[in-house]
Amino acid sequence: MPRALGLTRVAVVEDHLLFAESLEVALTLEGHDVHRIEVPVQTVVPAGWLLTALLRVRPRVVLLDLDLGSAGPGTRFIEPLVRSRAAVVVVTGDTREAVWGECLRRGARAVLEKTASLNTILATIRLIGDGRPVMSREERERLMLVYHQEKQELQDVRARLARLTPREREVLHCLMEGTTVREIARASFVSEATVRTQVKSILAKLEVCSQLAAVGLAHRVQTRLVSH
Fold it and tell me: Which helix (H) or strand (E) holds 12?
């Protein structure tokens, strides 16, 4: 038997239509007052629009995806939603522990994988409705520590990248695109020896021993910035 309607007002913020509809149906059958906030797939929407739509609903619980397509990263909405006294449960396909730790640091009550069963999601909402913790303090602290460690490491990498000259940044960007030293030299009308000297300087400033490691560092920072 479904529970009494209006047990908990839940907002679902998810740009994957099928997943959002599945959550809406399951939560409604449980008796929750469900409001699905549709995120346009192709039309770029301002972050303020989505936040305003959420605050207008006045949800008790928000099931929030992190990859919201045209609306950008979902992490930006956690803190304002928490300030509105909504309990934020992040439901994401991103399995990186540092990302989970960041969500918790911003105030999310829990982070669940999208592969989690509907029963797990429903149980999480019940715990919140009952005013009970949904994650152990030890697990929250562990994930937040992972986030802080990665944040410190990324700051260190950015500081090393800042040492590069504009030309060295150009060369590193070419390496990230898979361009060879010979191709860089040909496109820049300089000798291969000159490009190799520039690559050697890049490796020294980034404190790595190979082009692959240098590219890996740059991609790591770039990916983190794009994601959040």
Answer: strand 9-13
State pLDDT tens for residues 215-225.
999 988 877 65
Report the C-alpha gap between 186 and 149 in whole angstroms. 41
Quickly name the fold that domain 163-227 has: Arc Repressor Mutant, subunit A (1.10.10)
The mean predicted confidence, pLDDT, of the chain is 89
> Which CATH architecture group holds 9-144?
3-Layer(aba) Sandwich (3.40)
Residues of the chain with CATH 1.10.10.10: 163-227
Rounded to whole angstroms, how far apart are CA atoms 9 and 11? Answer: 7
pTM of the model: 0.78
Q: Tokens for 130, please give them.
A: 């009952």
For residue 98, the SS3 value is helix
Yes or no: say if 53 and 37 are a contact pair by the CB < 8 Å rule: yes
